[in-house]
Design a protein that fits this description.
It is a single chain. This protein has 155 residues and is an alpha+beta fold. It has 2 domains: 115 residues, no CATH class; 32 residues, no CATH class. Strands 1-4-5-6-2-3 form a 6-stranded antiparallel β-sheet. The protein starts with a helix and ends with a strand. Bound molecules: zinc ion.
């Protein structure tokens, strides 16, 4: 389960985008059906990794062995501050629709593989003709969340 603080951060995302999240569990069939009925319109990767401390011994910025890093990694300040967003989708980075679908599918398969803890990190919301998935992951090693916007296929 996510801690109260992390759940509060999820609430902030809901508020920001005016969504209403429900917990959502993935499996391979769900992923297959999703792409039968929807196309990937946008994938956002939101980073929460600004200003990591420099290790006094090895001088690296993200030395996982040092106490400073540990404190930074766990700090609420880090978890609250979205310092970078990467966006992928049709028309961005020379992606076409098929590239975008492939990218989203691979990311979801990766999440399915990673998330053996089943701790309710994935959320679903519907808005107009869109299906939105949000994966809360900023409190883990990657320091980033993943957002997916899918549009219903028109054929
Ligand atoms: Zn070090």
């Amino acid at each position: 389960m996510l801690s109260d603080f992390n759940l509060q951060m999820v609430k902030e995302v809901e508020k920001q985008f005016n969504l209403s999240f429900k917990s959502f569990n993935l499996n391979k069939n769900i992923i297959k059906n999703l792409f039968k009925n929807y196309q990937s319109k946008e994938i956002t990767i939101d980073f929460y990794d600004s200003s990591p401390p420099q290790c006094k011994e090895c001088e690296q910025l993200n030395c996982e062995n040092c106490e400073l890093y540990e404190a930074w990694f766990k700090s609420e300040e880090r978890l609250k501050f979205n310092n970078w967003v990467d966006i992928f989708g049709p028309g961005i980075w020379d992606y076409d629709q098929e590239d975008s679908n492939k990218f989203a599918k691979n990311l979801l398969l990766e999440i399915l593989k990673e998330d053996k803890e089943k701790d309710d990190r994935l959320f679903i919301a519907y808005k107009n003709n869109s299906l939105i998935l949000y994966y809360y992951n900023r409190d883990r090693k990657e320091c980033c969340d993943y957002g997916f916007v899918f549009k219903k296929r028109e054929d």
